[in-house]
Amino acid sequence: MMNNTLKNQYRFQSGTVITGKWNKNHYTLIRELGSGANGVVYLAEGRQGYIALKMSNDTMSITSEVNVLKSFSKVQGSTLGPSLLEIDDWEKQGKRVPFYVMEYIHGPDLLTFIQKKGHAWTGVLMLQLLKDLESLHREGWVFGDLKPENLIVTGPPTRIRCIDVGGTTLLGRAIKEYTEFFDRGYWQAGSRKAEPSYDLFAVAMVMINLYYPRRFSKQGTGLGQLKKVIREKPELAKYQDILCKAISSKYKSAIEMREDLLKILSSSDGDTQRNHYVNLSTSKTRKPVSRVKRRKYNKIAGLLETIMIILVISFLYILYVYGHLM
User: Fold this and answer.
1) Residues with catalytic annotation?
2) Which end of the chain is more exposed for a tag (fewer CB within 10 A), N or C?
3) Where would I find the beta strands (DSSP E) of 156-248?
4) 123 CB-near residues (< 8 Å, 6+ apart)
5) How many CB atoms lie within 10 A of CB 56?
6) Alpha-carbon distance 211 to 237, whole Å?
7) Strand-pair partners of 39
8) pLDDT tens digits for range 287-319
9) Is 3.40.50.150 the CATH classification of the domain at 110-257?
10) CATH 3.30.200.20 describes domain 4-103
11) CA atoms of 165 and 67, how far apart (whole Å)
12) Which of 9-23, 161-175, 289-303 has the weakest average pLDDT?
């Protein structure tokens, strides 16, 4: 996190007006959105409406993050990070304060969204995230500090977006910003070298965090502990294979992990729906029923089952086709 002395230098009251030295645009600060190791982000209002404004005393960090946002804009169809609007300086009492302005992404963070909407969305959102990470990796970057707090779900249509690119690192370099729970170095599961497998480890940890919202600390051997917590959570059972491969750094690309996830969702959702409707049909009555009525119930249950299987398969096929067209 940003040290308190540095953070206090960038703590400004609501209503403070930021005027760019070069572009002369005005932004009125509304409230602080967050702070990291190298800057503070504010919600502000300008002529474009609501925006996010990040200021820092680290010019190199600002330049790096701006380059990341520019790389995002080059990837057609990718909406992982916010759009860059401008970069400028603010003269404050004789001191130069570098800042940049980006799109304000509004919505709940990933963990909040899943807790409210349910885990049925987990697979769909992870498919989106992996597709965008693949595009980012192809541009030569690794996201680095991937965690639910940095992932916002917007919509409609429902879409996963990122609000902080401060940890994004060029391929081959050392990860410059991370959070322990999502860092494979902390779990002794690999190095902190910026490579696709680093992000994919973090994706697996994000999925685990969705089912273990309070998180947990490392005890003993990291990988052994992680595999154990995956096995102990029944809801994670269908993802066990891809999670274990991801935390063991066996995936070389995000698209490879995405394809495995798509196969799991395609093969398991039909069974889930089938079991749901069979249980529903048998739990509606506890009284003995006649053979005719039982036959009638079974016929209705079978019809509902067939309809749901068709709907689920159709939905997954549309997602698959849509994902390849994007």
Assistant:
1) 145
2) N
3) 159-162, 169-170
4) 261, 264, 265
5) 24
6) 11
7) 36
8) 334 444 544 544 465 556 556 555 655 565 565
9) no
10) yes
11) 10
12) 289-303
